[in-house]
Amino acid sequence: MKISLISFTSRGYRLLNKLLDMISDTNEARGYYKGKYLPADHETDSRIEIVTDELSEWVKTQYIQRNAIIFISSAGIAVRGIAPFVRDKYRDPAVVVMDEYGKNIISLLSGHLGGANELTNYLADMLQGNPVITTATDLNCVFAVDLFAKKNQLLITDRELAKEISAAILNDKKVFLHADTIIKGDWPEELANRKETSEQFGIYVSPFVTVNTPEMEGKSLHLIPKVISIGIGCKKSTSEDKLKQFILEQLGQKGIDIRSVINIASIDIKREEECLLRISRELEVPFLTYGSEELMKAEGEYERSDYVSRITGVDNVCERAAKLASNHGKIILHKTKGNGMTLALAMKEWSVTL
Asked: Locate the Cobalamin synthesis G N-terminal domain: which residues (predicted)?
């Protein structure tokens, strides 16, 4: 975790030093001091940078570059510092504030998705302080859909519906949960594995656009796992638009949501192919490439092409690339041809944990 810590007094400076010693082994931590009087030992401590800019300028930079900000100060200083930059819990970093003795550690912003609640408990445990958590689902010890999504790396497709589901749970309503995979862990009493009324909220976890169960009709939140690998072969100088359309058509044929794609893959001689690089950037997923020997080691039965084998040394690029990119997952769309392009889809083994 990329963490920035800032203090404003000599006593806070000493606590800042202590925290850097505690957390730097497992986090990328940076220390900052913005106070009227420099501590006597500052000249011998190169880890802590003196802030000369306005606090708002410092916060603006940390908001962009870091995952978490820890204020060793009053809550008021922290609130005024972050106020101009607060957006929403899906984009804000974790913000934690503590007093200069480390007695009270407060999760101030982005408790679930940003990880401020977890960070607060972690710091309180180390400092033997008092963690202050105010999120309702934590206080009531009930299922939190945003935390469940973060824990399992699931995309929340409807933020307003996620809020409604949390509100329903806090008002003692049961929520139906369905996943296209194994659900591990103990089921909390707030969740049901079957729908009891048509008005009941639902959550479904699936890489597919729709789930074939009538129980998911109505107010159901779709959470999308990143589990689909696309293996691709194409002629040199294939256009990005043509390849993108081909990908969309094949995903659509299988009913797969494009947001479930975790990577695209091909043979290493295609590592500089512009259309593949651009698709990778557009989808914001890695572009993986493999050598011919590595591809040929992929286990399974594949449709053989003598022509492709002569050119590349591999009998089937797209299926073998998808297989490797999915960590030897299941091929769910075998080699499909289209105007100088080939494509295969594989789904990695996955599960969710409550």
From this structure: 58-138
